[in-house]
Write a structure and sequence with these properties.
The chain has three helices and four strands, in the order H-E-E-E-E-H-H. The radius of gyration is 21 Å and the shape is globular. The chain starts with a helix and ends with a helix. The chain is α+β, with helices and mostly antiparallel strands. The longest helix has 28 residues. 46% of the residues lie in helices and 17% in strands.
């Protein structure tokens, strides 16, 4: 029984070290009276009111198999929605790739409040074009 507990403790300690880095891991595992929050500091949300309210249309960006164009909807100074104005949908493959990637890119952009979203695996060109069009739209909203 003691071996299992030690293994679980080692796994937990390894996960904390990987997630939070060496300095943060030391702070998390140090004995103290005040609990340390487990949220990494680099994930703080941007301040509200960063953008001017309105709708802003991004540029038409080449996604290799077609173009992507988005419209950023800003409400209360924050990115509230991303409308897809144009995207490749001429084949079943394009429909599949974009049907999977664009909703993920949209929700990540809204959460991040910027166009610096991760590239979706299998949809590299779509992801790059989405970022380009959204960045142009958000630049107008500043």
């Amino acid at each position: 029984m003691k071996k299992i507990f030690l293994s679980i403790s080692l796994i937990a300690a390894s996960v904390l070290y990987v997630l939070f880095g060496s300095e943060r891991y030391a702070a998390l595992t140090a004995a103290s009276d005040t609990p340390t929050p487990l949220t990494p500091p680099e994930h703080t949300p941007p301040p509200v009111g960063t953008f001017k309210d309105g709708s802003y249309t991004g540029t038409l960006a080449d996604a290799y198999y077609g173009n992507i164009q988005v419209r950023a909807i800003i409400q209360n100074g924050a990115l509230n929605d991303v409308e897809l104005l144009d995207y490749p949908s001429h084949s079943r493959t394009s429909e599949y790739i974009n049907g999977r990637a664009l909703p993920e890119l949209t929700s990540e952009a809204i959460a991040a409040q910027n166009a610096k979203v991760d590239i979706v695996s299998g949809a590299t060109q779509t992801s790059k074009a989405f970022r380009e069009s959204l960045a142009a739209a958000l630049a107008q909203a500043k």
